[in-house]
């Protein structure tokens, strides 16, 4: 009887241990606020899909839990940093296997080539210089576009509703697109055309890839591939134009042209930079 009791207790403890290990909802990120998985295999992917996009999911998560939050990307625990100060404390250019980076690069056909630590440091410096120099060179442009938007608001009657989110998104698209890719996008129609394709790609990155619906819908997949192809065509022309020439306006893509990258890497990283920058600016 005693032997059976010992066996029963041992079996029960082993069963509880197996459940705690195999079912991620019972696992917590030690010391990091966040949410537990909603599904054993997919973690919080259903929550991301229900939020409408990865960006909206992260915005809501940070509003609820603060600047450092955790969630589950499948069976993998992910920590999201929501402020620049926190990011500076934890950034590590040696680690390049982040699942989101892998997902984005896969969708944008980016090939990293598995660079060494020194190469990763070089690229990080290249990108940082690109952002810094682009901001310095285009500060007057930001002021000009800001003043144009302010004048537009001041022209409205006091009682008229201002669609702030829509206007700020438009401001972000116009300013960021010009700082990243140059004067081609002084024309509002060019910005709108680029944004339409950008929206198609970003929508599928935020949802279609995560829930697997992109590969199941041939119409949507063709729209996605056509939009990405048009974005790449625009970027190829800009890269060709900027190579070996000097311009009074320094743009982000110039840093990539000067760096030791191939055209596919330049195109992919420009799209990533533009996507993230528009979201942050708006």
UniProtKB/TrEMBL annotation:
<dbReference type="GO" id="GO:0016020">
    <property type="term" value="C:membrane"/>
</dbReference>
<keyword id="KW-0175">Coiled coil</keyword>
<dbReference type="GO" id="GO:0004497">
    <property type="term" value="F:monooxygenase activity"/>
</dbReference>
<dbReference type="InterPro" id="IPR001128">
    <property type="entry name" value="Cyt_P450"/>
</dbReference>
<comment type="similarity">
    <text>Belongs to the cytochrome P450 family.</text>
</comment>
<protein>
    <submittedName>
        <fullName>CYP20A1 isoform 12</fullName>
    </submittedName>
</protein>
<dbReference type="InterPro" id="IPR052666">
    <property type="entry name" value="CYP450_20A1-like"/>
</dbReference>
<dbReference type="GO" id="GO:0016705">
    <property type="term" value="F:oxidoreductase activity, acting on paired donors, with incorporation or reduction of molecular oxygen"/>
</dbReference>
<dbReference type="GO" id="GO:0005506">
    <property type="term" value="F:iron ion binding"/>
</dbReference>
<dbReference type="InterPro" id="IPR036396">
    <property type="entry name" value="Cyt_P450_sf"/>
</dbReference>
<feature type="coiled-coil region">
    <location>
        <begin position="214"/>
        <end position="241"/>
    </location>
</feature>
<dbReference type="GO" id="GO:0020037">
    <property type="term" value="F:heme binding"/>
</dbReference>
<dbReference type="Pfam" id="PF00067">
    <property type="entry name" value="p450"/>
</dbReference>
